[in-house]
Automatic annotation (TrEMBL):
InterPro entries: AAA+_ATPase, P-loop_NTPase, Signal_recog_particl_SRP54_hlx, SR_rcpt_FtsY, SRP/SRP_N, SRP54_GTPase_dom, SRP54_N_sf. The lineage of its organism: Bacteria, Pseudomonadati, Pseudomonadota, Alphaproteobacteria, Hyphomicrobiales. It catalyses: GTP + H2O = GDP + phosphate + H(+). GO terms for molecular function: GTP binding; GTPase activity; signal recognition particle binding. Residues 17-49, 116-126 have a biased composition (Basic and acidic residues). It comes from Salinarimonas ramus. Its main location: membrane. Its EC number is 3.6.5.4. Involved in targeting and insertion of nascent membrane proteins into the cytoplasmic membrane. Acts as a receptor for the complex formed by the signal recognition particle (SRP) and the ribosome-nascent chain (RNC). Interaction with SRP-RNC leads to the transfer of the RNC complex to the Sec translocase for insertion into the membrane, the hydrolysis of GTP by both Ffh and FtsY, and the dissociation of the SRP-FtsY complex into the individual components. Keywords: Cell membrane, Cytoplasm, GTP-binding, Hydrolase, Membrane, Nucleotide-binding, Receptor. Gene3D superfamilies: P-loop containing nucleotide triphosphate hydrolases, Signal recognition particle SRP54, nucleotide-binding domain. This is Signal recognition particle receptor FtsY. Residues 423-436 form the SRP54-type proteins GTP-binding domain. Residues 81-112 have a biased composition (Low complexity).
Length: 454
């Protein structure tokens, strides 16, 4: 792998940049600084918003915090707003992002903002969420019959923000311009901004440069190179989720921070399994939030699945034990176990997940058979620290990435693939039941590059 700290100036050194101004900040540091800035803003928001812990949830032992591995100390459990807030915020952000000028969010700069910058501005300008009572369960609109739209269409529509941001920038960068060191560094910036990560951005830029230096290169050629490189990174992690039908039940433990889309994803997966004629039981293990229990019951009714639940605040591990015992007795094909994404702190979350796993093993020592981490694409680079956290807590076996439709930084999947190599089973590009599909590297790569279906 290229030495990232020396990456800045690579193309200049290689080709000699005209009028080079070496006083610029190294790009790696710029990217890190942007991330740190975002992190510290989120930290501040959390400090202001952190709601008091619900008294119904088991208090973690005082020394539990001491067991949080040091490397997780900085891991962020964003978002922690009540469910629904994220969607509302995204809507506000979307609206703000659409407003072109001073009538909208106060523009921090006079030059026009890129879609990614507008996303940042909108996020910062979004009003503080007001404390609200427990939100209503998400309406089951997702299951309402919708006109059949092909997955490619859904995918390209869902990834439109990423593809138009990257594609638009690439088109304007490469139209009628010869490829030189400045162009290449600008291309690298575009890719870093889309959250592909520095190693991938450097590799793709090198691939574009190969044999084309000092020549005009059509933007579509750049997009084709981009798609090919993204596919190369993602193909090794694109694994379908395979259900071992010999296990009854096959236990899927769903983990992730609150609001990432776990409960919705459970509903969407249940619909898929039911369509394959598999029987499904859901355990409403997010006992932290009453609305999550209700939400799961709605999905249970809609998909013809059994839902096992207890009252809000009940012991989630005990519930998982009961659910597995019952699903075993009933000979159920698949058991989907929901979990809370927000407890008082990271130590509380980790010890609860560990307990759920431990307790389920008392019923079936091979359970859980898959641990799916649901990641919200809109959290950007923070997804990386979430993977580390949940890997420690529950031994993640695969990823489901949701809300790719809500960000211009869909490149985060590439950064995740290169860093962890964990299987990516599904991606979500909308709230509808058909907006979750098995992950296919080529389709994704072509869609974010703004190319036609292969
Ligand atoms: N736009 C979009 N919204 C999604 C997607 N997946 C889930 N959502 C929405 O995200 C919101 C949060 O989803 P939930 O399923 O409640 O999240 P959760 O992880 O279970 O949250 P907690 O129960 O609080 O832990 C809901 O409004 C979902 O409809 C997606 O792929 N795209």
């Amino acid at each position: 792998m290229a030495d990232e700290t020396e990456k800045r100036g690579f193309f200049s050194r290689l080709f000699g940049r005209k009028g080079e101004a070496p006083a610029e900040e190294p790009r790696e540091e710029t990217a890190r600084a942007v991330d740190e800035q975002r992190e510290s803003e989120r930290e501040e928001e959390r400090a202001e918003e952190a709601p008091p812990a619900a008294s119904t949830v088991t208090e973690p032992s005082p020394d539990a915090a001491a067991h949080v591995p040091g490397e997780l100390a900085g891991a962020d459990l964003q978002p922690i707003e009540p469910a629904g807030e994220a969607a509302r915020e995204a809507a506000v952000a979307e609206e703000l992002a659409r407003q072109p000028g001073p009538a909208g969010a106060p523009a921090p700069e006079q030059r026009p903002l890129s879609p990614i910058e507008r996303e940042d501005v909108a996020r910062e300008a979004a009003p503080e969420p007001e404390p609200e009572p427990e939100p209503e369960p998400a309406p089951p609109a997702a299951v309402a019959p919708a006109p059949k739209v092909s997955w490619w269409k859904r995918l390209t529509q869902g990834l439109a923000r990423t593809s138009s941001s990257m594609g638009g920038a690439i088109t304007s960068l490469f139209t009628k311009r010869k490829l030189d060191a400045t162009t290449l560094e600008d291309l690298e910036d575009i890719l870093i901004q889309a959250d592909l990560g520095v190693p991938a951005a450097t590799r793709i830029t090198e691939a574009v440069a190969k044999g084309r230096y000092d020549k005009e290169i059509p933007p579509d050629d750049v997009k084709r190179v981009l798609a090919a490189e993204v596919e190369r990174s993602l193909a090794p992690v694109a694994h379908p989720l395979s259900i071992d039908r010999g296990r009854k039940p096959f236990v899927l433990l769903m983990v992730g921070v609150n609001g990432a889309g776990k409960t919705t994803t459970i509903g969407k997966l249940a619909a898929k399994f039911r369509a394959q004629k598999l029987s499904v039981t859901m355990a409403a293990g997010d006992t932290f939030r009453a609305a999550a229990i209700e939400q799961l019951k709605v999905w249970g009714e809609r998909t013809g699945s059994t839902v096992i639940s207890r009252e809000q605040g009940a012991d989630a591990a005990g519930l998982a034990f009961d659910a597995l015992t019952q699903a075993r007795r009933d000979g159920t094909d698949v058991l989907l176990v929901d979990t809370a994404g927000r407890l008082q702190n990271k130590a509380g979350l980790m010890s609860e997940l560990e307990k759920i796993v431990r307790v389920m093993k008392k019923v079936d020592d091979t359970a859980p058979h898959a641990v799916l981490l649901v990641l919200d694409a809109t959290v950007g680079q923070n997804a990386l620290s979430q993977v580390e956290l949940f890997q420690k807590a529950a031994g993640v076996t695969g990823i489901v990435m949701t809300k790719l439709d809500g960000t211009a930084r869909g490149g985060i999947l590439v950064a995740l693939a290169e860093r962890f190599g964990l299987p990516v089973h599904f991606i979500g590009v909308g709230e509808g039941v058909d907006d979750l599909e098995p992950f296919a590297a080529r389709d994704f790569a072509r869609a974010i590059a703004g190319l036609e279906e292969a």
